[in-house]
Fold this protein.
Amino acid sequence: MKERYFKRWLVRPILDLLRQGVTPEKIALSVALGAALGVFPAVGWTTALCALAAMILRLNLPAIQIVNYLVYPAQIALLVPFFRAGEKLFRAPHLPISVPQIHALIHASAWNAAKLLWATTWHAIVVWGLLAPVFVGFVYAILTPVLRRALRRQQKDTGPEPGATESPESLRSA
């Protein structure tokens, strides 16, 4: 079941983008940034951050947002670890809080939750800012050759694009 879900919501849309002419590099960067921005340790900001990144870097908005939404459970799971890492980095006092408590705080009063968690969230964002570029580089480096290979395989299976001109080498050999 997980495999079908993964193929339906991630693999198939990515292959469709390749068929539409989006470069493997743009897709890889969209996926890498969507995953990194999707775990940004401040709830409620990831969609806007992904949209902004897509516009500034001219990336594929659907691809970056699909990945952003797929990693949402990871964002929630990583909130407390980012909070703890921020406490260690800044030698801040330990804030004994769990994900259910954060959820309850936000639902009770988003403004009070923001005030209470401000320093902790800011520290977590700094930790995320240190780790995210490494993560993006790693994912991009892995995905780019995989997507190039998928594009070559797709082109081999379907032949040249309709309306595409043949290369001079293929014309000489004919």
Observations:
- The CA atoms of residues 54 and 60 lie 6 Å apart.
